[in-house]
Amino acid sequence: MDNQFGNIQLPDFMLVDFFRDNLVIVNDVAELPKTQAAKAPQPLPVEPIVAPAVKKTPLPLPKKWFLGDNQKHIVILVNDIEAVYLRDEWLQFLSNILGACKLNLGDVAIVNHANNPMLFTDFQQQLAPQHFILFDVPTQNIQLPFTVPFYQFQQFGSTQFLLAPSLSLMLGNTDAVKMEKSKLWLSLKKMFNI
Questions:
Q1: At what angle are helices 88-100 and 175-191 packed, to 10 degrees?
Q2: CA atoms 88, 92, 97, 103: torsion sign
Q3: pLDDT tens digits, residue range 95-150?
Q4: What are 143-186's pLDDT values in tens digits?
Q5: Cα dihedral across residues 161, 193, 150, 114: positive or negative
Q6: Distance spanning both ends of the chain, measured CA to CA
Q7: What backbone phi and psi angles, to 5 degrees, belong to 71?
Q8: In Å, what is the CA distance from 165 to each residue of 70, 98, 157, 170, 184?
Q9: Strands of 87-158, DSSP E
Q10: Could you tell me which of 27, 45, 44 has the C-alpha nearest to residue 36?
Q11: How far is residue 42's CA from residue 21's CA, in Å, rounded to a whole number?
């Protein structure tokens, strides 16, 4: 196959137009004639770009990211997209059930998983839980390697876990609500040796 364009020589001014922004002058500018030296683009100094070392550190949590004082290292994890900590009616129910267990808000740390989607390792570092009660939060959401049915205990390391359905199922006076409250109460009695 014959190459028709193999020996075409373009004039210098056309080459300059074609490669105006991409042409790099290798020779020293001083070697060019004075008229070309004035027009020749000066190469920019090349500074290496060094990315800063990235160290993954957890973001600082707000000063008060849980409700309560965690005096007895009891973490209660809820899932409430409508409140900072939890709805007033849920808090009232929890306060009543804690009172029945001879506990109060000073003894626990109530964390809303919807606003603080932390992992169990974060809870261990920040709150050192001995008892961990999850309302409507599957264990996989906090990266625990197990799952258990509602109201059944699970020991993992030095922490005892209890899973329960949403607190919204504990409000009211229907037979179904009374049954859920009863199951929760029996489990909490075992957990806290009441």
A1: 50
A2: positive
A3: 999 999 999 999 999 999 999 999 999 999 999 999 999 999 999 999 999 999 99
A4: 999 999 999 999 999 999 999 999 999 999 999 999 999 999 99
A5: negative
A6: 96
A7: -70, -30
A8: 22, 17, 23, 9, 9
A9: 108-112, 131-135, 153-156
A10: 27
A11: 12
CA dist., res. 93 & res. 53, Å (int): 48
User: Parallel, antiparallel, or unpaired for β 74-78 and 153-156?
Assistant: unpaired
The dihedral region occupied by 70, where left means phi > 0, alpha psi between -120 and 50, and beta the remainder, is: left
Distance CA 123, CA 65 (A): 12
Strands (E) in 36-190, as ranges, are 67-68, 74-78, 108-112, 131-135, 153-156, 159-164
- 93 contact partners, CB below 8 Å, separation of at least 6: 167, 170, 171
CA distances in angstroms from 59 to 56, 127, 147, 150, listed in the order given: 9, 16, 28, 32
User: What is the architecture, at CATH level 2, of domain 67-191?
Assistant: 3-Layer(aba) Sandwich (3.40)
Nearest to 84 by CA among 115, 126, 117: 115
* Adjacency order of strands within the sheet including 153-156: 67-68, 108-112, 74-78, 131-135, 159-164, 153-156
Closest CA to 113 of 179, 49, 175, 66: 66
The residues spanned by each domain of the chain are 67-191
Residue 33: both structure tokens together = 């004639």
User: How are beta strands 131-135 and 74-78 bridged, if at all?
Assistant: parallel
